[in-house]
Design brief:
alpha/beta, Rossmann fold, 2 domains, 14 helices
Amino acid sequence: MTDTPVERYRTLVSSGELKADPIQELAAEKLTALSHALAGYAARSGKKGWMARISHLGFKRGAKDDAPPPQGLYLYGGVGRGKSMLMNLFFETAPAAKKERVHFHAFMRDIHAEIHRRRQMPMYEEEGDPIPGMADGIADNATLLCLDEMEIRDIADAMIVGRLFQKLFERGVVVVTTSNRHPDDLYKHGLQRDRFVPFIAIIKEKLDLLELDAAQDYRLGRLAGQTVYHMPLGPAADAALDAAWARLTDDAKPEPDFILVHGRKVSVPASAHQVARFSFDDLCRTALGPTDYLAIAAQFSTVIIKDIPAMNEDLKDAARRFVTLVDALYEHRTALVCSADAHPHELYIGSEGGFEFARTASRLIEMQAADYIQQRHINKS
């Protein structure tokens, strides 16, 4: 096999498109070994099922094979470590005849839609549990399932994922997934998490774990030399934030999201590739507190905030929340790109809370420096 993930990786390094990184090369070698193991392997498929009817996934029915399945891989690590890039190299070269790569959120969206569809069917009461039938459909149409950015954030997903993946592994589906979190940290602090813990044990048994602790955060490197604090407010600042979004997310379409904080959903108006975009009002004129800000800072490597106003004592509650927000971002080394109505030391005028805001102003200045931007994001909550 001449076209492998590790050979493609080394070619990219030789051409100067990537910097040599021993941890990334190790991951590429593991993915190459898995590619070799996949040659000629087919999952133990069941009845042709629901995924075949989802046209955009484009699965085709394949042959059955009862060979022992190769062990899959769970790549985890902070944002910008090259996980998705390596997944691309692997998926493009994997010899599996039936394979699919999908973002984990899209995968779960389709799972929920199929469960809803099945519950509307007249035979639902007779059929009962929809999970085994869905697992049959996936195994029938995907020997290799690659899932990008696994993240479990609510009890419904936690319960479905645990049972569905157990059935997939029983049917011999090989899973390769990326995540920002170690399996032990999935759905951390979630409601009824004890019911999810057995799934973590299954991941550790069925998937080879590899932390992609690369020496450089490649996504944050895209901020190098860029202005991150834009003023005054207006069309030019808005355009600068749009450009930063495009640069940091590869011009991805922004999608609404949420973070689960002790069982409560905190809305994220726009997100993609671990970058979140908010307005000042979204964050500081809403009833959010320290725990919420810490969760946002841990989840996203970069936060973009639009329209930070000049504040006085009439906005002291919003100013207090802003102080707490900046502290959380700073603590997690989250990059901040923002538009503001004034320089940091001029953002708040007032005697009440003035001392605390002086520290915030200093941090806002420090967060514009290259030394801060180049630090690793801390994604542990």
